[in-house]
Design goal:
disordered C terminus; mainly alpha; 6 helices; 293 residues; single chain; rod-shaped
């Protein structure tokens, strides 16, 4: 097939060919370029931007070269004229040779200056490429930082919205707590009122219990007195039991005056103490006085 590798032999063969050619031309001052320099590819637009100023400098260098060539041509003309007049005067020939040598030296110095400036331009071109790469890297980093900042702003906006929602919820919760506290305060007031009422009722109950205990004591004492008097009445009844004939005739023996007075006093005491409304025992079977024969 038709390609460069078939005729040249690939990159390795071409590199060896260039090295061999440089070795052949080394006697003429030709130097071999650096093999495998490792330079990166430059875009066409960047290359034109970087070489726009080089074209201007190259034009100025060409202008200088043209002036140098004109001067060299003038020097050559002078040399020709000097050659023509060489036979006439050796002094003029020597002066012309000096002028030619000075012009040659000047041209050589100008050439060296141009080469130094070209090297400086190449160095500046490399530096410009490096600065451009740094600027691109910085620009990419700035874009990434800007994206990160945008993302951070979105996150902060979301967090701010969440905080507002939480604040509203907290305010609602606080209002609910305040309402509950007010209800609790009302309940506490009610409890205090109930406690006071309970304390009053407890005091009242305690007073009533004391009164009831005192009344029970009085009732027990009255009952004891009644039992004593009932025992006395039974003893008297046993001593003064009527005969059977008297019971049959219906003429019981009247109570003595002291016992009658004692029963009357007892009934009055019961009425004064409110004991006359107690439930009455069932009547006993017997005579008209309720006494069992």
């Amino acid at each position: 097939r038709l390609n460069a590798k078939r005729w040249v032999g690939g990159r390795g063969k071409l590199r060896e060919m260039q090295s061999a050619f440089a070795d052949w031309q080394s006697s003429f001052g030709v130097e071999r370029g650096k093999p495998r320099p490792g330079r990166k590819h430059t875009r066409v637009s960047d290359w034109y931007d970087g070489h726009a100023r080089l074209d201007e400098r190259e034009a100025s260098l060409k202008e200088r070269e043209s002036r140098t060539q004109i001067e060299c041509e003038a020097a050559a003309a002078d040399r020709r004229s000097a050659d023509k007049t060489l036979a006439e005067t050796k002094t003029e020939r020597a002066e012309l040779e000096k002028r030619i040598s000075a012009a040659t030296k000047q041209a050589t110095s100008w050439n060296a200056d141009l080469q130094a400036r070209e090297a400086h331009l190449e160095q500046r071109e490399v530096e410009a490429e490096r600065v451009a790469e740094q600027q691109k890297a910085a620009q990419r980093q700035c874009q990434e930082q800007r994206k990160a900042l945008d993302e951070r702003e979105r996150q902060l906006a979301t967090q701010s919205q969440n905080l507002k929602q939480r604040e509203e919820a907290l305010q609602e919760h606080q209002s609910t707590i305040e309402q509950r506290e007010a209800a609790v305060a009302i309940q506490e007031q009610r409890l205090k009122i109930l406690e006071r009422e309970l304390a009053e009722r407890r005091d009242c109950l305690s007073a009533k219990e004391g009164a009831l205990e005192q009344r029970q004591t009085e009732i027990d004492a009255a009952g004891e007195q009644l039992r004593e008097r009932l025992g006395a009445m039974r003893a008297w009844a046993d001593q003064n039991r009527p005969e059977d004939a008297e019971l049959l005739e219906g003429k019981p023996k009247p109570l003595p005056g002291a016992l009658r007075q004692m029963v009357g006093d007892e009934a009055a005491d019961w009425h004064d103490q409110g004991l006359d409304n107690l439930p009455q025992p069932p009547p006993r079977r017997g005579g008209p006085n309720g006494l069992t024969p």
